[in-house]
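anyone seen this seq b4? input:
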Amino acid sequence: MSEHRTPQIRYGGDYNPEQWPREVWEADYAAFDEAAIDTLTLNVFSWATLQPDADTYDFTQLDEIVERAVAGGRDVVLATSTGALPPWLAHAHPEVCRTDFQGRRHVYGQRHNACPSSPVYRRLSAELAGRVAERYAGTPGLVAWHVGNEYGGFDGGCWCDLCGAGFRDWLRERYGTLDRLNEAWNATFWSHTFTDFEQVVPPNMLSEHWRGPDHTAFQGITLDYRRFMSEAMLANYRDEKERIREHDATTPVTTNFMGMFRPIDYHRWAADLDVASWDNYPPGQREHARMALAHDLMRGLKDGAPFWVMEQTPTITASRDVNPVKRPGVLRLWSWQAVAHGADAVLYFQMRQSKGACEKYHGAVLDHAGRTDTRSFREVAALGAELRDLGDAVLGARTPARVAVLFDWDSWWAAEMTDGFNRHARYVDTVLGYYRALWNAGAQLDVVPVTADLTGYDVVVAPMLHLLRGDVVARLEEVAARGGTVLSSFWAGRVDEDSNAYLMDAPGPLGPLFGIRVEETDSAEPGVVHPVHLTGPDGDLTAGAGLVFEVLVPEGAEVVGTYGAEFYAGTPAVTRHTFGDGEAWYVATGLDDAGLAHVVRRVLDRHGLVGPYADADDVELAVRATDGRRFAFVLNHATEVREVAAHASGTDLLSGRRVEAGETLRLEPTDVVVLQED
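predicted toks r here
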């Protein structure tokens, strides 16, 4: 391949040539040429090779690997290799191994296995990152540094004495005084008043938890420990990035996130990443809305800037109980969906299947035999050709969104560990329900933190905004006051930043915005469905609802949906409140997809934001724009043919054919159109 390629959506992925003899490398590179692979991620898990003991560093093999990549004209994402400890380090310093949620100190094994508070781990991982950066900074084609790997690991953290000490230091900095700490944790309950910071221990199965991580005697303690652990791992990342910057001031530094991953608050990490990246492994085969949500969440980390898909599988994911193969066309469809939502890189794990250990059957560009005549390789190569031919057309393009969905780790953590509600109601499931309704309606949207600037949005959707912090209430009120619409759900506005209940009617400080108060909150077992009667200008609908049923008392709000069962039959389930020049909608129950679609369409209709393909099931429209050009991605996720009227005139960049507004687009299953609009 030429060293001076036309810029394009990056294509390639994790390559581990250290696992095979040199003659295999040459066959691999020939296959990479055939598949238009332009980017390789190297050195992700090589610590034991790079540093065989405490005093020795050996870069001989990595030199050869990097030199071959450069000679092959590939761009390189170079990892620091600190995502897994070498055995000698755990043997010499057992305290480096994590202590799990049950309080058991682990011995050496697996990966992501280091205590983030260990001084030894922090020193040696930073030193390795610095030595890698010193040696390879300035390498031709070096396009990014990849720190660690999938931070979080088993149990999502560590509960050892070192972490306990780190937690106490974190608390001293956060609260300053014991009085403030005890107030935040409501420590007079169950005689928990602390008289010395040294009395605080990590909340786990040996202390505040009795049935698992979501059952805690003190939500404030556990919430703070989750915040601390997320920041402790961020400190590890910062350690390595700082050492990289001593030798390379400009090459982007990143690490691979995992989408909606509960243990780490990615919003609090975002400022430290030069580009957001994540690993896309959906839990099922019909997860197009969920993937879109995760893509948008990753794009929202950097204020709408493009992100990278650092990993996806060409065929199967090997870590599940059941591991189905991607059906024909699905790899292409899902890859273009990522690009449609803002990805400027679509990379794989892995380039060649490992011959042993737990990922030997994980999907790869090349199988164990290295064949290039398989269906999966042909699909990889065909996609590579499409990306190459597209060139730099959409690079850097952003999503012109007028709808925002708020996603908040604090609300996620706090809501799911609170006793007294319904533990079957889950934060991500709730957010996904609202997102899916917006996705089906064709809304172009951003997924942003509760701290985001909301001034550019006509509609702001905040499902299960359980915990309120900062000035989020004032900013939501401003959206409605200037003519926008705010939509929220049950459990909103229940607790403050310390997870203490507001001493007022729910939804707490959000009450004036929504014009309601919550008198009672009922729950039901999964499978119990109550009818909800919804009214609207286009007709009425009886939807189903489950899990949560808040009994509302309107205080200025208009009733647009009522319960049809239980002692609260006939009382409000969905309300709309005029606030300033706009509206605030409140959904007090777990509406089914039909009910959410009804509500969301009404909200979007008010602002003219329903998409042109909203009535074509599973046809997705996603837009990117740059320099006055708009690119409309039309993707058919249905298992049947869809025929739609083209929403605009332009040229399909994949087929080269001209499309006129209003003409019929026939979309076969998994079809993709990339329309550069006139």
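The radius of gyration is 26 Å. The first strand starts at residue 10 and ends at 14. kinda curious what u guys think
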